Amino acid sequence: MSGTDNHTTPPHWPVKFLRFLLKDEYLEEIEGDMEERFYDNVEQYNLKKASRLYAWDTLKLLRPKLMRGLKRDYRLNHTAMFKHNLLITYRGFLRNKSSFFINLVGLSTGLACALFIYLWVSDELIVDKFHKHDHRLYQALINRFNTNGVSTERATPAILATSLADELPEVEQAVASTSGMTLPKFTLTAEDKSVQAEGQFAGKDFFRLFSYDLIGGAEADVLADKSSIVISQNLAHKLFNTTENVVGKVVEWNLFGTTRQAIVTGIVKNVPPNSTDQFDFLVPFEIFKALMGPGADGWGATAPSTFLLLQEGTNLADFQTKVAGFIQSKEPTANTEVLLRPYSNRYLYNNFENGVQAGGRIEYVRLFSIIAIFILTIACINFMNLFTAKAWHRMKEIGVKKTVGAGRKLLIVQYLSESLLLAFLSLLMASALVVLFLPQLNQITGKQLTLSLDSQLIIAAFVITILTGLVAGSYPALYLSNFSPITVLKGKLNSSVGEIWTRKGLVIFQFVISVVLIVSIVVVHQQIAYVQSKNLGYDQDQVIYFDMNGSIQKNLNTFLSEVRDIPGIIHASSTTHRFTGHQSKTSGLNWEGKNPDDIIEFEIVEVSHDLFETLDIELQQGRAFSQDYRTDSTKIIFNSAAIKAMGLQDPVGKVITLWGVDRELIGVTKDFHFQSLHEPVTPLFFVLAPERTNQVVVKIEAGREQETIAGLQEFYQRYGPRFAFDYQFMEQTYQTLYTAEQRVSTLSKYFGGLAIIISCLGLFGLTSFTAERRLKEIGIRKVLGASTFGIIRLLSYDFTKTVLAAILMALPIGYFISQRWLEGFAFSIDLPWWYFAVSGLLALLIAWLTISFQSLKAALANPVDSLRNE
Question: What is the pTM of this model?
Answer without folding.
Answer: 0.76
